Amino acid sequence: MKDSALRVGGALAAVTAMTLLSLPTAVATTTGGAAAAGEATARGAATSAVVHSLAPTAADEKVVRDYWTPARMAAVPAEPPSDRPPADGPDGAAWRGSAVLSASVGRLFYTDRDGEDSSCTATLVAAANRSTVVTAAHCTLGHDLLGDDARWNTNQLFVPGYRDTAAPYGTFAVRLAAVHPAWVKSGENSPYDQAFLTLGSNASGARAAEAAGSTQRLGYDRPGGRPVQQFGYPRASAYKEAHQGRPEFTGKRLAHCWGPAREFLGWGDVPRREDQWGVRCDMGGGSSGGPRMAGFNASTGKGTVVGVNSMGARMTTAGQSCESPTVDCHRYLVGPQFTARVTQPLFMAVQNS
Question: Considering the entire predicted model, what is its pTM?
Answer without folding.
Answer: 0.90
